[in-house]
Amino acid sequence: MDNQRVTSSMFDTDELVINMGPQHPSTHGVLRVVLRLDGERVVDADVVIGYLHRGIEKLCENRDWTQIILLTDRMDYVAAATNNLGYCETVEKLMQLEVPRRAKYIRTALAELQRLASHLVWLGTHAMDIGAVTVFLYCLRERELILDLFEEYCGARLTYNSMRIGGLPGDLPPGWDRKAREICDLVDEKVVEYEQLLTQNRIWLERTRGVGVISAADAVAMGFCGPPLRASGVYRDVRVDEPYAAYEELQFDIPIGAAGDTYDRYLVRLEEIRQSTRIVRQALDGLPDGPVMGKVPRLIKPPAGETYHAIESPKGELGFFIVSDGKSLSPWRFRVRPPSFTNLQLLPKLVRGHLVADVVALIGTIDIVLGEVDR
Amino acid sequence: MIDYVVIPLVQIAILLVGVLTAVAYLVLLERKVQAWVQVRLGPMRVGPHGLLQPVADIVKLLVKEDITPARADKWIYTLAPIIVLVPALIVFAVIPFGQSVTLFGVSIPLYIADLNIGLLYIVAVASLGVYGTILGGWSSNSKYPLLASLRASAQLISYEVAVTMTLVSMILVAGSLSMVEIVEAQQAQGWWFVFLQPVAFFIYFVGGLAETNRAPFDLPEAEQELVGGFHTEYSGIRFALFFLAEYANMIVISAIATTIFWGGWLRPFPSVEFLAFLDWVPGWAWFIAKTMVFLYVFLWVRATLPRYRYDQLMRIGWKVLIPLAIANVIVTAAWKVLVAG
User: Fold this and answer.
1) pLDDT averaged over consecutive 10-residue blocks of chain B (341 residues)?
2) Per-residue confidence (pLDDT) for residue B223, from 0 to 100
3) In angstroms, rounded to a whole number, what is the distance separating the alpha carbons of residues A94 and A131?
4) Which of A203, A208, A360 to mutate to test the interface with B (most CBs of B within 10 A)?
């Protein structure tokens, strides 16, 4: 080391640049954040993504329409069923296929169970980032049961491939809806337990209140979506604004936050867990009879044209933009609007002026999955 | 000759072995308690219910490659874990585990030394440990450990002030700095001092959590933020020394709490005559049982609470605990002069 330089600059103050990630315990995968620190305070942050880029969009343009369902599983791997749903509905919209009502209801139930599973993972990891390790194991305990449900339905626990263009691969197994109801009751019960550990906990309040405040105007301007947007007080939920599947026929509330801080984002997601169990119960109660697969041509080949369709994934507005040339057996252009990606671009704004400890809390609070950010 | 050399040496050997074994099993206990809280089983593979896990851990740490980063300050880097561990172990010299026992006609005290400045010795020695933390983080020449050791030095120094202040009020109550005499004073006054000084005990325990870097004050080694804290770059046996020191310090804090606040080797309600049948339990058993309770609280707190942020931690230390501790000293002194006279 250059000793001369060290001595002469001994009493200077300098900004410390540290790399948080891509190998870091709480960047939720391979996110890399370059932090410029003044002591413990963050002066600026630079988000570097792309470590998990697998070229899924391009890959989809070289696979046929049914194979793509499988690839969508690999984007948001914490919530594969909602990805399946988004893609299948987009193709159905492009082909103007009619989906049987029973399939719509089952899809809704699956999507909401998926939201439960995803929010439980979020709550667990977020709490663990702030140091409450026990909540993580409690959350995964309940998520495990939901994964069991999915396993019983489609045979897989993480990447489900659980929907088909025009319907579903199969009907619900006998007794499945009773189990689903039991799990909904259990989750409702356990959410109270998580709340006892966190909601009124002084340390939790001090760590989350007033941390990473985003105003409604900023949130809209920067393209925030999903629970973080609603926590800032914007009433926007694709399930209500542009209903899909069976949401139009079901009753549920959209929780809205006021302060737009980490604590509000936590409360909004917890309330969404309760609303999700309510939706699952309704969907199972009103389950109509009939087939689960609509009339779909043997060879799926949408007519030439383009379409955009969005659904409310657990993380926010998940949109698919697909262009078909009407000739080939694969999409001509396949583009995903991932909620994690648009939410992540707010991170530098969120962390500026906060402490290092808050950075992990803020990465947790926007609920990103790198598989979806990088695709 | 025998009284001054052989017996103390045997005592020291037994104590060191005992403490190090206790530390190793405390690690297992921590994993088990955390697992029970978190509806898991914890270590189950090595031996029945994982009872041999500490042995496996120690063997692993001993045979692991011992890495020194290329740009580390090698001397200080080597010295730091030793500076951390040694004070944690030599504090045990003045902790009385019980009254004397008679073996083969020789009366052997269950402590190594009864210094007349025992408490002062503990405070002095225990505050040396922080140097190891600072030097370890600094000499690694790496950014995360540096940040962590800056946190650690600020935290340990500020919480030490509060803890020492509570000890001052305890000295006023007991009228002695000797650990043995403090316990005897509790016998004489008929109270465990925790009932006379609940505020002091609260501050002492919270400060103790912070001084041992335990949750919710485990900022210097917050793995979710700073990867591994000040010992990120350490591996093998040197890492093990840091680890041993942390758990040894937990035992020290618990043992001091037991001695000063909870009557040391005394049975519950030492002045109540009809509970005298409790005396058939030997003093050292009471001492160990009480210490275990505190150790369990350490583990329990860790499994339950999230972590404070750095600025919040400093705020609690300087704006809540230290003023409270000073006020407690003043009130105790005033009571001593005006009432107890």
Assistant:
1) 77 86 88 87 85 88 84 85 88 82 71 81 85 85 81 82 88 84 81 83 87 76 66 82 86 88 79 71 83 88 83 86 90 84 61
2) 61
3) 47
4) A203
Q: Do B310 and A357 touch (CB under 8 A)?
A: yes
Question: Whose structure tokens read 């189990």?
Answer: A179
Spell out the domain ranges in chain A: 15-374
Query: How far is residue A21's CA from residue A24's CA, in Å, rounded to a whole number?
Result: 5
Calculate the alpha carbon distances from A147 to A189, A312, B60 in Å: 18, 20, 36
Rounded to an integer, the average pLDDT of A193-200 is: 85
Residue A315: closest CA among A368, A374, A263, A277: A368
B315 CB within 8 Å of a chain A CB: no
Does A351 contact chain B (CB < 8 Å)?
Answer: no
What are the counts of helices (DSSP H) followed by strands (DSSP E) for chain A? 16, 6
B147 CB near a chain A CB, below 8 Å? yes
Cα separation, A84 vs A326, whole angstroms: 22
Residue A329 touches partner B, C-beta closer than 8 Å = no
ipTM above 0.90, yes or no: no
A278, A224, A290, A268: which is closest to A247 by C-alpha?
A: A278
Tell me the residue type at A292: V
A241 and chain B in contact, CB less than 8 A:
no
Domain of residue B191: give its range. Answer: 2-340
Residue A5 has pLDDT above 60, yes or no: no
Chain B positions in Cβ-Cβ contact with residue A35 (cut-off 8 Å):
none
For residue B216, cis peptide bond before it (omega within 30 degrees of 0):
yes
Specify the pTM: 0.83
Q: What percent of chain A has pLDDT over 70?
A: 96
Superfamily grouping for domain A15-374: Cytochrome-c3 Hydrogenase, chain B (1.10.645.10)
Tokens of B331: 């009130």
- Provide φ and ψ at A280, rounded to 5°: -60, -45
How many Å lie between the alpha carbon of B225 and the closest alpha carbon of chain A? Answer: 6
Domain total for chain B? 1
Determine the Cα–Cα distance for residues A161 and A298; give it in Å rounded to an integer: 19
How many of the other CB atoms lie within 10 Å of CB of A253?
Answer: 12
* CB contact (8 A) between residue B308 and residue A358: no
The model's pLDDT over A34-81, given as tens digits with 9 standing for 90+, comes to: 888 887 788 888 888 888 888 888 898 888 888 899 888 888 888 889
Tokens representing residue A28 in the block: 């939720």
The set of residues, in sequence order, having a beta carbon less than 8 Å from that of A148 and lying 6+ positions away, is: A157
* Mutation to test the A interface, candidates B74, B225, B313, most A Cβ within 10 Å: B225
- pLDDT given at position A9: 53
Residue reference for tokens 């439960």: A116
B41 touches chain A (CB under 8 A): no
CA distance A16 to B146: 11
Q: Model confidence at A167, in pLDDT bands (50, 70, 90)?
A: confident
What's at A338, amino acid-wise?
Answer: P
By the CB < 8 Å criterion, does A138 face chain B?
yes
Task: Please choose, from the candidates B24, B273, B314, the residue with its C-alpha nearest in 3D space to the C-alpha of residue B162.
Answer: B314
Token digits of residue B236: 């093998």
Q: Yes or no: say if A295 and A166 are a contact pair by the CB < 8 Å rule.
A: yes
Tell me which residue in A1, A137, A355 faces B309 most closely, judged by beta carbons.
A355
Q: Is A215 on the interface with B (CB under 8 A)?
A: no
